[in-house]
Structure formats: C-alpha cells, structure tokens
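F.,

This is the one I mentioned.
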C-alpha cells in the first residue's frame, strides 16, 4: 500500500470512528467505533514509528525460523497473559469474583457513554471477547490488548532476529548483551506473577494487590516495554554485523 493510499485509508477510518462515536451506547458506539479506532492506530503504528521493525520482520518471516517461530509463539502467549490481567483488573474494580460451571465464548461490551472518562473507558475496554474457563477464570480479549500484543510481538521478533545476526557474525558479546536486555523487557508479566495471581490458592494476593498498582502495570508497563524494545532495535541497527 502506497503512502498516499495509506493516508486516505487512515483518514477514512478516522471519520468513520468519529461518526460511529456519535451514536448512543450500543452496537455502533461501543463495538464498531473502538474496533475502527484500534485498527487505525495499528496501521499508523506499524507503517510509521514501527515501519522499520514491521518491514524487518515481514521480510525475514519465511526465510528465518527464529523470527517466524518467535512471532507465532509470542503473540498468543502475550495475549493470554494480557487477557488474564484484564480479568484480574476488572475483578478488583468491581469487587466481583464469579464462579463458572461451563465454558463459553461471548462478544460483550459495556455501555459507556462516549464523553469524558467514558470515552476513554470505551476505547480501552470495548468490545471484548469473553472466554469463560470454569470454574474460576475468564479471558477478556479487547482490541487494545490485541494492539499491544501485536506491537510487542513484532518488536520482540525483530530484536530476536538481530540477536541471531550478532551470534552468526560471531559478535557473541554484543549478542549476549542484547539477549539479556531483550529477556528483561519482553514480557510484562512473568511466570511467578501468573502463578501468584491466577491460581485458586492465591486468594490472599487479591487482598494485597491494589487496583491502582495493577492499572499501572496493565496500561503503563506495556508502553514502557514498547519504547524500550524499539530503542533497543534502533541501537542494534547501528551495530555493524558481518553476517554469513
């Protein structure tokens, strides 16, 4: 897609978003408008600030297994953890811990008004694919979560690709340093966090983790990770690599 066509496409999405946002709470304002918004933001992100990253991953996706495997594995993993984190966040906000007796998949939305904080909540939490996992858990997959997961997935895959380039060029020191940096920033929530928050035996943690802290972890930490990984990838491009 050429730059001119991309700009026209993004502008069309923007006006559609504004149009559907004017509707009262319901299908158009709480489902269609947020989806259009995050599709627009994804296109802007991948074709402008992350264009180098996106091009690098897509160009090497079929040619290099480390990039294709990391992309295909990391995206569902991050989306799973992010969806569990939203479930935890909503449970803390509304002080409600449901018990499910059967599995189910639903498309849901909250009827936020599209003004003030309601406008922001509408973009962050609507719509959502609710996956019920009896007896204790449900996944809440939102367009915002998909956007974050895709952005970090491309950045992780790109950095892993550069790591393998360093290793192949026998620049092991640079490769190890880069690997350490990437390893410290690729996942917003670690395995111990999952075990602590998402098992029935962890009910004590629900009483000590505040909604404010988890809100910061859910919204701010992924953005910090994106900026950190992007900066790391840009720095790696400046390292001369004699790849074979």
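My design for it:
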């Amino acid at each position: 897609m050429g730059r001119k066509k991309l700009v026209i496409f993004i502008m069309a999405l923007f006006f559609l978003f504004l149009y559907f946002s004017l509707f009262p709470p319901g299908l158009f304002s709480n489902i269609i408008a947020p989806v259009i918004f995050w599709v627009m933001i994804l296109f802007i992100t991948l074709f402008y600030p992350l264009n180098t990253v996106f091009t690098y991953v897509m160009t090497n996706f079929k040619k290099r297994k480390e990039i294709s495997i990391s992309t295909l594995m990391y995206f569902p993993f991050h989306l799973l953890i992010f969806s569990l984190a939203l479930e935890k966040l909503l449970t803390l906000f509304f002080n409600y811990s449901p018990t499910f007796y059967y599995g189910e998949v639903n498309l849901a939305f909250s009827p936020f008004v599209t003004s003030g904080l309601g406008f922001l909540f509408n973009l962050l939490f609507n719509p959502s694919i609710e996956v019920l996992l009896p007896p204790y858990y449900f996944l809440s997959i939102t367009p915002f979560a998909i956007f974050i997961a895709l952005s970090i997935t491309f950045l992780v895959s790109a950095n892993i690709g550069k790591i393998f380039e360093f290793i192949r060029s026998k620049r092991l020191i640079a490769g190890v340093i880069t690997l350490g940096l990437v390893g410290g920033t690729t996942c917003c929530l670690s395995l111990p966090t999952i075990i602590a928050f998402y098992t029935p035996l962890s009910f004590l943690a629900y009483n000590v983790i505040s909604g404010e802290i988890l809100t910061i972890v859910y919204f701010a930490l992924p953005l910090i990770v994106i900026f950190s990984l992007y900066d790391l990838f840009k720095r790696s491009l400046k390292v001369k690599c004699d790849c074979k």
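Residues 52-99+136-237 form one domain.

Talk soon.
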